[in-house]
Amino acid sequence: MAVVSLSPLAIISGFIALILFRRDLHTIVFFFGTLLNELFNSILKYTICEPRPLQRSVSQEFGMPSSHAQFSWFFATYVIYFVFIRLHHMNNNTTLENAWKAVIILSCLSVAVFVTISRVYLQYHTWKQVIFGSIVGILFGTFWFALTHLVFTPYFPMLASWRVCELLLVRDTTLIPNVLWFEYTNARQESRARGRKLVSMKSQ
Fold it and tell me: The Phosphatidic acid phosphatase type 2/haloperoxidase domain covers which part of the protein (predicted)?
């Protein structure tokens, strides 16, 4: 349970790695949403001022709502919307793709449920605190996906054309149905082209 409870840290590490190596605008906006979600959680905690069930430090710690539960359900909710809405029009909508979508959704839901339960099991929060955190996470995840999908996404091509984004290699892959397949085919074509060029240079 203690290991599962640390899942949000693993997710944040994954976000940072994706942003550093892929530099996709949608990933950056998604990560920014998680930061705003955490900020909103802190505001709620210091507004409600409900203590944790067990006080583990000298300083006062508040537990309403649970930040772990809110984070996990924000992430799960956003990913589920992304799979159902953004990935709905993928060109290769095969049985394998549908199976992968089901695995992603079930994994996110499982992690969110286990993180929520673990916070009560480890006596960091009460059931009321984790349930409230879960509800806030679901609502904020819904809000942030709608904002990203309907408001931010149409501006991604313009943002990607900015000089600073070009210097940082920030890109927009929104209109590419399957980024993994796109990168694979382009890398293969480039590799073959360079291979033929190398053979041609050696034969001269």
Answer: 27-145
